[in-house]
Amino acid sequence: MSRLRKIEIPDKLWSKFVLNWEKEFDHIFWGKINKFANNRSLIIECCCGKGEFLVEKARSSPSQKFIGIDYDSDVLTRAVKLTNQNNCKNIIYLYNDIRKIFKNFYFPLKSKLDKIYINFPDPWPKKRHWKRRVIQTVLLKDIHKVMNKNTALHIVTDHDEYVQWIKNHLSELKNLFRPVYNNWYTTKIDNLEKTTYMEKAVKKGNTIYQFIVKKSLT
């Protein structure tokens, strides 16, 4: 994987859009997020990368609030720059590991959560690296705890083997999650905002798989 060319943005611009848990007390960190949400519908993208997906979502739904989470400062810098260029005031970013965020989630935000997206997570194709995959039982259980009855979890991938991994993990937790689609996923992507990565995947002829699940009714 090629490294991104490092770009610089003013510290003031970074601070305008990015919260870093490591530099905040818990109650201040979550208090800022709660104030940002302001009783609006909340959408979270995990591993948000350069912010293309979130910016398109935010532009088309200005009344909703969006949170991007990533622990790569280089891609997050690009996300901040793109967000600022598009004057999206309804987006903030969390410079943190998504596993930590969901494990320590501020439960008063639960009622506001509309959707959680995990778009094209790294498939880590070599077996010895599978433990690095984002989709793991522990994370899915933590996400389930913060979902309300209407929250939808979307997971998108173009990696054929990872599809089975995701399906197996969700199936093992069928007491917690119910699929929107009978086979757990669909290959229809009309509802997805196009990003550079997705367009490249489609151009290569890759199939895009989209899982959508909600909390089990039992």
UniProtKB/TrEMBL annotation:
S-adenosyl-L-methionine binds at E45, D70, D97, D122. GO terms for cellular component: tRNA methyltransferase complex. GO terms for molecular function: tRNA (guanine(46)-N7)-methyltransferase activity. It catalyses: guanosine(46) in tRNA + S-adenosyl-L-methionine = N(7)-methylguanosine(46) in tRNA + S-adenosyl-L-homocysteine. Substrate binds at K126, D158. Catalyzes the formation of N(7)-methylguanine at position 46 (m7G46) in tRNA. It comes from Candidatus Mcinerneyibacterium aminivorans. The keyword Transferase applies. Its EC number is 2.1.1.33. The lineage of its organism: Bacteria, Candidatus Macinerneyibacteriota, Candidatus Mcinerneyibacteria, Candidatus Mcinerneyibacteriales, Candidatus Mcinerneyibacteriaceae. Keywords: Methyltransferase, S-adenosyl-L-methionine, Transferase, tRNA processing. This is tRNA (guanine-N(7)-)-methyltransferase. Coiled coil: none annotated. InterPro entries: SAM-dependent_MTases_sf, tRNA_(Gua-N-7)_MeTrfase_Trmb, tRNA_methyltr_TrmB_bact. SUPFAM superfamilies: S-adenosyl-L-methionine-dependent methyltransferases. Belongs to the class I-like SAM-binding methyltransferase superfamily. TrmB family.
